[in-house]
Structures are given as C-alpha cells and as structure tokens.
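Dear colleagues,

As part of the handover before I leave the project, I'm documenting each prediction I ran so the next person doesn't have to rerun anything. This entry is a single chain, and its sequence is reproduced below.
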Amino acid sequence: MSDTNTPEIRTPSIDEVNPEDENVSRDLAANFANNLNIHEHGSEKNKEPSCSVKKDWSLLKDPIIHTERLENIRQKKGYIIDMDGVIYHGTKLLPGAKELVDFLNRNNKKYLFLTNNSAPTPRELQQKLSRLGIEVTEDHFFTAGQATAYFLSSQSPNGGTCYVIGEPGLAYALYDKGFFMNDHNPDYVILGEGPSYNYEKLSKAVQLVQQGAKLIATNLDVENLDSKGNKIPSCGAFTACVELVTRTKAFFCGKPSALIMRYAQRVLGLSRLETCIIGDRMDTDIVAGISSEIDPVLVLSGVTSMEELALFAYRPYVILGGVYEIPSDDRKHNISESDMEAASRRASYL
C-alpha cells in the first residue's frame, strides 16, 4: 500500500495545528494516514496485506469509500460523541473539536456528549469544556451515572435504596430519580468510578450482595489512565472482585451496553438511522454503535490504532484521523426546523 521510496513522515503535534487554516485538516489527515501506513508495513514491506486488512484501511484511505461514508456522516441529524480521546486529551483540546461543535450548531444538528465516567455531573463536564474554549449547555451531556439512574428508575419507578461506591456525579443522578443511600439493607449495591474504593467498602458491598442486594455497575471498564498516563484500576476491576466473592453477575449500564445508547437516542429524540456515534475505542464506542445499529465512527486520536483493528471481529462504519475531518462549510448539511420536527415525529413511533 505504501511506496518503498516514501520519505519519513512526521505526524504534526496538536500544538502545531492552526485551526484558522482551512487546509490543515486535510493535510493533517493525509500525513497522519501516511504515517500510519508506513508504520503498519515498515517491518514487512514485502508482505502482501490480507484482504481483511485492506478492507480495514479502505475505511480510512480509499478515496471513494472514505469520502462517501464521511459525507453520509455529515448528513446525519444526531451525533453521540465520546469525550476523552475524541474532544480532548486531559486538559488539551484535540484538533477540530471546536470546529465540530460549531459545525453542529451552525447546521441545526442535535448532539450529545456521552461518557462512561460516572464521577462528574453534566454541569462539571460543561465547565470543563468551557475552560477548553467550547461553550455548550448542560443538557448536551449524558454520563454512565445517569444511565444507571435511568435503568434503576425503570426497575423501581417509586425509587429505592442503594449502597454506592462512587463520586458525587453518580449520587446526584440517583437522588434525582428518587434513590437514597442505605448501608444497612439496600435494594441495590452500585459500583461507579472514583478513588474512594478501599478494603472496607468492598467488603461491605460483598456482604450486602450476599444478603440479597442486586449488584449494579456503571460500566465494566477494567482500567483507566491517570493524569500521568499510568494505568489504574477502573470500575470493572472492582466489580469483578465483588462478582468473584459473591458468585453473582453485575448488570452494567454504560458502553458497550446498548442500554446507554438507547437512553442517549431517546434524549436526542431521533431514530438510529439518523444518528451516529463518534468514539476512539473499538471495545466500547464502536461495539456500542454496532449493537445498537447506530453507525459508528472511529477516530484515531485516542486509544485504538489501525494495527489493533485486526483484533476485532467487527469494523466501524468509517475511520477518521480525528474529528477535524467532519466540519464542512457546505450548506447542504443544514437541517431545517421542519425536517428536524419530522425526524422527531418518526422517532416517536419507534
């Protein structure tokens, strides 16, 4: 796929990207794809890639497939967008993130930032984006904590009691749906994200589950990264501990569960055919889209690399270097008020 005489290509850093330059997005995409291509075949230049690998790469580089599918994504009415690795890395805004939000607002699109992190509240997420230079309202955010509260409300419409290990964002979401804290005989044991786990709390969770409380996890992510890039245990690791001791199986509400996707779709008020999900992880974002029949868009600005696609039995709808590829000035992507109202009416019948 790559020319053996191709010179070394350096991927531009985030700090080198000038968002005012109209050509930088396309140049960055080309350089990034070429660099990935060289990396893929650098040690095996004489080896012919398999048919499956070629199909993976066509979603990123084929001038017809990539262009047509990217255009289809631009035509969507609703966007479910992961945050870390898609919009930002830590406290650094990724190329094209602000332009993506401008594109969505300018063209009357509906969008929702969706995160598996149950710790923050929507307001805290709004404030973080504001500090990074993106102004959106609080109702554009949806967390795994909110999905958990929605699920419990569907199971117990009159509310109930919970023993929770997690952060305020999860507790606030549960309070909002009529659930209160109880460490004596709760209906549910709920495990979320956060640094508050210890031996005493996990032992308490085990005892309560053994007494009959139902075990719920906000997500099953086993690991996460701290601010220095070191791996740290996440909700799924602690949940596995309780599962092993109690010999029960937790129900989880975050990605890749289709449940959180259904809730997000309901918040948007659009059908799955008029919605897409944009994420950087094959094992959560992309499989969540596939299981929900919502077109999944993989961006290479986060966790998953092109080399890792071969590890999965499924593919995204299209692959982008980053969200900087999506914004367009073409007015044909604008959604009129009447078209959006008609789309919402169609979704109400589903």
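DSSP finds twelve helices and 15 strands in the chain. The CA atoms of residues 150 and 276 lie 22 Å apart.

All the best with the project,
I.
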